[in-house]
């Protein structure tokens, strides 16, 4: 009887193991086909998730913008298999953590990946440049199809735009996200930045393949755009994938002519996201062609007067990283804007700009960039407004924005003494009279949207240098605690005690001054930074 039970148990284990292998095989097939939505569901059904299952499940969530789920799966992956996990999973895990709001953990994995210290708070502070800070106010555009993905926006003439969308339900379903393939649309722009009269582009342009990211010449007679190649090509892993090429079409008798693939496109790699310089003499694009810095790089190529092209040039390491640089746009003042997840940023794709020789990339800050993908940025510099795409709401959506330039202004507030004493002799507690003054200061800090608040506190000359230094620091901390208790963020406040080293009068000795004169040095000074909009004077 015991042998019978053992046989039954072994049979059940074998059936279970066979079922597990079958589930993994099914999920792996979907993953290889880049059907990530279905792959995630299939991998979730696997009871005993090994390292490869966790890697692929995490990636399936990551590539479909389910960052909270991705972070949870990658966390389990690293808890179980940290010593054997390839570096690229650190990179994706760190981005998932950033999107999930776990910045300290994200810093840890970014630091491990890049092999250098990463401090997100320091990066945020570095974005504030007193000479060149722009604040963006973004608004999601209303759409008549909330389930579609909309991005790849571009200017089309004076009052029109073009964008890519999955809203055409007559197109084939794309396994990656289970939405229709992309088509190009056009629409009118209102003064408020709203889009209306949205219509499909010509059937000469749109096909059952993906079309996106159009770029138009200034006269509106030439368009460059992305289209997925019909032919699939085996990548280094032996997986058949469809790469992307740039096509060009000319307006003939009021209609778009048959598109032609530009000559440096290929079946073996992608060439995508065209953008024209203001004078139309240079075409910018993204590509993962061999010889770049890694993944997708940005390139430029001369467009000759006869319509032929020069030799593509990589924009170099100031712009390009080992990760993705995509969606270039060149404004009327020849500033290059682009999206990247390889430079340190606020999460996933961020928008950057570069001027001059493209030797440096500058992040546009967190009034524009989110912890998710922000990309396809376009702007009319003179009007200080434009558009971008972002999946910060969970789906690719279009946003309009207005931009204002600010300077950082440092304001100093010193608590008035009059006949009052800031701190009693040898004390650091806040008196009721002083609380009333601090309440007024708090109102100023809140109304000014103050940042980088510093409290510097002082002592009189009575007592040892060491004791007075400690006493002044306690006074600074006491002042800070009062501000924090009344709604000022502790992270915005720093404190420093100067002891008796910075008197406001000549009372530098322990004797020789009146009590009122000594009292003037028992004080706190509060300084803070605030942003002041740059008002441009109208030229006459």
UniProtKB/TrEMBL annotation:
What is the phylogenetic placement of the source species in the record?
Bacteria, Pseudomonadati, Bacteroidota, Flavobacteriia, Flavobacteriales
State if Membrane is listed as a keyword.
yes
Q: What is its main location?
A: membrane
Keyword Membrane present in the record's keywords: the answer is yes
Q: Which residues form the OmpA-like domain?
A: 411-532
Give the keywords, sorted: Cell outer membrane, Membrane
Q: Which organism is it from?
A: Autumnicola psychrophila
Q: Determine the domain of life of the protein's source.
A: Bacteria
Instruction: Indicate what this protein is called per its UniProt record.
Output: OmpA family protein
Q: Which Pfam families match?
A: OmpA, PD40
Localization: Cell outer membrane
Q: Which PANTHER family match?
A: LIPOPROTEIN YIAD-RELATED, STATOR ELEMENT OF FLAGELLAR MOTOR COMPLEX
């Amino acid at each position: 009887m015991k042998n019978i039970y053992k046989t039954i148990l072994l049979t059940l284990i074998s059936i279970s193991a066979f079922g597990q292998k079958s589930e993994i095989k099914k999920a792996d097939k979907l993953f290889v086909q880049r059907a990530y939505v279905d792959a995630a569901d299939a991998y979730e059904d696997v009871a005993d998730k090994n390292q490869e299952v966790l890697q692929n499940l995490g990636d399936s969530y990551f590539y479909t913008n389910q960052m909270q789920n991705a972070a949870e799966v990658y966390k389990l992956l690293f808890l179980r298999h940290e010593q054997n996990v390839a570096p690229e999973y650190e990179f994706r895990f760190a981005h998932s953590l950033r999107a999930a709001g776990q910045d300290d953990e994200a810093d840890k994995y970014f630091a491990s990946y890049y092999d250098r210290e990463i401090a997100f708070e320091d990066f945020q502070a570095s974005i504030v440049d007193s000479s060149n800070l722009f604040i963006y106010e973004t608004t999601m555009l209303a759409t008549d199809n909330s389930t579609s993905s909309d991005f790849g926006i571009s200017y089309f003439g004076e009052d029109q735009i073009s964008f890519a969308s999955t809203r055409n339900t007559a197109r084939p379903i794309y396994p990656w996200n289970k939405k229709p393939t992309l088509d190009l649309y056009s629409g009118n722009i209102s003064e408020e930045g709203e889009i209306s009269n949205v219509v499909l582009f010509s059937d000469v342009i749109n096909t059952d393949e993906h079309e996106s990211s159009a770029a138009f010449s200034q006269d509106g007679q030439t368009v460059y755009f992305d289209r997925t190649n019909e032919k699939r090509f085996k990548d280094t892993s032996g997986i058949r994938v469809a790469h992307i090429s740039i096509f060009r079409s000319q307006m003939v008798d009021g209609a778009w002519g048959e598109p032609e693939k530009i000559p440096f496109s290929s079946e073996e790699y992608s060439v995508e996201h065209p953008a024209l310089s203001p004078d139309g003499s240079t075409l910018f694009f993204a590509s993962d062609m061999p010889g770049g810095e890694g993944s997708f790089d940005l390139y430029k190529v001369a467009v000759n007067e006869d319509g032929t092209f020069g030799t593509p040039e990589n924009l170099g390491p100031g712009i390009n990283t080992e990760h993705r640089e995509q969606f270039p746009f060149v404004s009327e003042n020849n500033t290059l804007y682009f999206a990247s997840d390889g430079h340190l940023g606020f999460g996933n794709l961020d928008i950057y700009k570069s001027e001059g020789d493209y030797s440096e990339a500058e992040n546009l800050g967190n009034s524009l960039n989110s912890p998710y993908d922000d990309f396809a940025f376009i702007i009319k510099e003179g009007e200080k407004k434009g558009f971008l795409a972002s999946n910060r709401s969970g789906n690719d959506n279009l946003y309009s924005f207005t931009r204002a330039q600010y300077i950082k202004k440092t304001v100093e507030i010193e608590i008035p003494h009059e006949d009052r004493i800031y701190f009693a002799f040898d004390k650091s507690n806040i008196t009721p009279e002083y609380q009333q003054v601090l309440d007024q200061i708090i109102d100023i800090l809140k109304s000014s949207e103050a940042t980088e608040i510093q409290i510097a506190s002082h002592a009189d000359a009575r007592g040892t240098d060491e004791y007075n230094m400690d006493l002044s620091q306690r006074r600074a901390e006491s002042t800070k605690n009062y501000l924090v208790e009344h709604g000022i963020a502790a992270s915005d406040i720093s404190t420093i005690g100067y002891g008796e080293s910075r008197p406001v009068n000549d009372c530098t000795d322990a004797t020789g001054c009146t009590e009122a004169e000594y009292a003037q040095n028992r004080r706190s000074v509060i300084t803070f930074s605030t942003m002041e909009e740059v008002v441009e004077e109208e030229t006459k």
